[in-house]
Design a protein that fits this description.
- This protein is α/β, with parallel strands linked by helices and 238 residues long.
- It folds into two domains: 125 residues, Response regulator (Rossmann fold); 104 residues, OB fold (Dihydrolipoamide Acetyltransferase, E2P).
- It has seven helices and 15 strands.
- The strands form four sheets. Strands 2-1-3-4-5 form a five-stranded parallel beta sheet, sandwiched between helices. A five-stranded antiparallel beta sheet has the order 10-9-8-12-11. A three-stranded antiparallel beta sheet has the order 13-14-15, with no helix packed on it.
- Helix 2 packs parallel to helix 3.
- The longest helix is centred in the middle third of the chain and has 22 residues.
- The radius of gyration is 22 Å and the shape is elongated.
- The mean pLDDT is 85.
């Protein structure tokens, strides 16, 4: 899977370069840093970062808080505020946009890593809470550090592959999920059935059932003996 794509917005280029170098050492995919609101918005629109580190004070009239408001309203990804000012006025302004994390200069490599991971985690939890009403129609998977919502109707099947599970979709997309097949099965609705130790299929996409296999889309998937009866019962009941 691709590494998390990070945008650094910092008006002092030496500091920005140091942050970017540290992020690269930590394994993140780091974009070209921006020094102003305008540069940041151009990069966000073009590159679609997974998370942004926003210095509150920037070159020009608009601040990192203005960027955060745009992210919340139009782009929907987490951000971390970065500032050398920890005074109450700055903190209160930052709190208005409810940042998932906050860093005060100077900070360590470990603090930077922790802030990014906390921001991604908190944002993902908030997305789940907001989407609870449609949880019976979709599943959330971790993708590039954030949670991606995938509709059940678009899922063909799951295939266990060592410590990962491969998720196959109708548009030929494929994702790797670091969960067990048993854990994933607990999050699915009645349209999904286990057909073999390593496979869960969406019965709405089953095209043909044979003696020891089924066809889902163009894929031939084996059927385990102990799973066949439940598969037939499910197909007959829809």
């Amino acid at each position: 899977m691709e590494s998390v794509k990070v945008l650094v917005v910092e008006n002092e280029m030496i500091i920005a370069d140091n942050i970017c170098n540290t992020l690269e050492d930590l394994g993140y995919n780091v974009l070209e840093p921006a020094i102003s609101y305008t540069e940041a918005m151009i990069t966000i629109e073009k590159e679609k970062p997974d998370i942004a580190i926003l210095d509150i004070i920037l070159s020009g009239k608009k601040t990192g808080i203005d960027i955060a408001k745009q992210i919340i309203d139009n782009y929907h990804f987490p951000f971390v505020f970065l500032t050398s000012n920890s005074d109450s006025i700055t903190l209160n302004k930052a709190k208005e946009v409810m940042p998932p994390a906050y860093l005060v200069k100077p900070f360590s490599k470990e603090e930077l890593f922790t802030s990014i991971e906390i921001a991604i985690s908190n944002y993902s939890k908030r997305v789940i809470e907001e989407e609870k009403s449609v949880s019976d129609k979709s599943i959330f998977i971790k993708n590039k550090g954030a949670l991606l919502k995938v509709k059940f109707d678009d899922i063909l099947y799951f295939k266990s592959s060592h410590v990962y599970v491969e998720l196959f979709l109708v548009d030929n997309k494929k994702f790797l999920v670091r969960k067990s097949l048993n854990n994933i099965q607990e999050t699915l609705n009645k349209n999904f059935v286990r057909v073999q130790r390593s496979f869960i299929v969406n019965i709405h996409h089953v095209k043909e059932v044979k003696i020891d296999s089924i066809i889902v889309d163009q894929e031939i998937i084996p059927i385990g003996k102990k799973y066949k009866e439940e598969l037939i019962d499910r197909i007959n009941s829809i």
